[in-house]
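Task: fold both queries, return tokens.
Query 1:
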Amino acid sequence: MKFNESKNPSIISMEPLGLSPSAVYPMFLLGLTTYCLILVFNLTLILTIALNRQLHKPMFLLLINLPIYDVMGATAFYPQLIDSILTQDRTISQPACFLQAVIVHLYGGGSIYILTIMAYDRYVAICLPLRYNAIMSLNLVAKLITVAWLYNFTTVAAVFILLARFRFCRSAITDMYCNNPSLMKLVCEDVSINNYYGLIASIFNETISLCAVVITYVQILLTCLLNKHADAKSKAIRTCATHLVVFVLYELTTLFTIVSHRFNEVSAFLRRSFGVSFLVFPPILNPLIYGLNTREIRMKVINYIRKKASILLPQRQVNVS
């Protein structure tokens, strides 16, 4: 793909999909179905927690932020991808590319911060159960969520304010979607300040999150091993294992995607694969992992479906008779 050498190209080209004509409609349907499932699963989780007062507890108030971020990330990625599959046009306007990049970075950073706070919540619940209500008060949870959102917006805003100083001299990015590292490659001026800030901020945030999760989970593991009740031990380990899998998935894909752009030796295919998996798998797996694995949420959803079915079925029987 040739780069456009105009002074400030208003149209940006992304990596071609390379689909054959016979694969266009199957891939379009696959993308549309996946996006719809993500919306249904995550919105179900959001509404279930928001509309049930019994679920207005610290754990669930933290959890509701995760599907919100998942919907943001999926909406930044899928509609543009689905449209480009159908039209076979991989171009995007510069403002739309900036917007997509901002939302993708908000999604990635916000998910990591919320998962870190959730790890602390699990630590208090398992290691300090008698003090849980005193420590994890609704007031503290609200403050933690607010700080996480504000810090996320501030960090991402700084990234793109630094980028907005430059004018692009190229118009082709080698990624499946717009992000800060790929957009920096469109600049012909010195972007070392952006590079340093991006690397330092990413490594700092990832290190703090990773250390916090490792410390809390070591404490949780020790508590579980010392617990004489087999049921309590297995439940705690099962709950924490799913959380840890999701966290590690975010950490690996996020860090690799950011760092790989700084090294030319990294395979472009590998970088794109990690970048896409970061936006494809968590949004569809998270609501299933947390929704189906959490008894309170599962029962609320099942009871709602049963209630709606009991209302609709008698009406149909009356209409038939």
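Query 1 returned. Query 2:
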Amino acid sequence: MEPGNGTQISEFLLLGFSEEPELQSLIFGLFLPMYLVTVFGNLLIILAVSSDSHLHTPMYFFLSNLSLVDICFTSTTVPKMLWNIQTQNKVITYECCITQLYFYTIFAVLDNFILTVMAYDRFVAICHPLHYMVIMNPRLCGLLVLLSWIMSAMVSLLHSLMVLRLSFCSDLEIPHFFCELNQVLLLACSDTFLNNIMIYFLTGLLGGGPLAGILYSYSKIVSCICGIPSAQGKYKAFSTCASHLSVVSLFYGTILGVYLSSAATQNAHSSTTASVMYTVVTPMLNPFIYSLRNNDIKRALERLFGK
């Protein structure tokens, strides 16, 4: 295939994890249950929050949004991977690849924003408890989530449009199980300097900025908790944000830790492993973290199932 613009490209080949049929069957048997647990676990969180009036608070409003985003995030990549393994057909059309890239980017950025908003919510709840319901009113909560969606959609649209302007070489094999932006850019024959600059700039702005906000919020939270005189008061204050802190640590820890190691080795397999960690493992563990560490969620689930 001669290099050309994006509209002339017919398909990409997703190489996935392995060419061996036995290993692919093992991967299918592992990822299908993980995907189902992710979907049903996060759906339970959404149902518990929506069905229990005691959970109609800003904290659980953001949690239900996080669960929705996690379902969508995982669903942009895993079903296609499972389908490719089952049918032994690793082809994805150019249009589907760009579509997958667009929605994957939306939910990856949105996950980042929602976690940041949740950190701000915990900061207000612990550091300004008397003004919490005034500050975190329904209008502000809805506005924060809406702005997160709009900004994520704009960032994703920008990346997708910049990929559409590229022309591609004849060897369109992606050493991954989905169309990741960096891997797609490596196949381009045209200059990707502007694309790479935009990736670094937006990653620093939309990744480093929210992370700095989360760290600042928790530095203030820790300071406020240390000022509480009683040990019981400190434990109660910390328990309200322990689940969120665990999820934040898991999300950023897997991205930073695994991707830094894969960048050092420049290994495609390491990059795939990194993607699995935060596209599959983290969304799957989030419902367990919130249900096991949160008595309100436990009671809501018990009432939901009539126990």
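Both queries returned. Flag for query 2: The longest helix spans residues 231-265.
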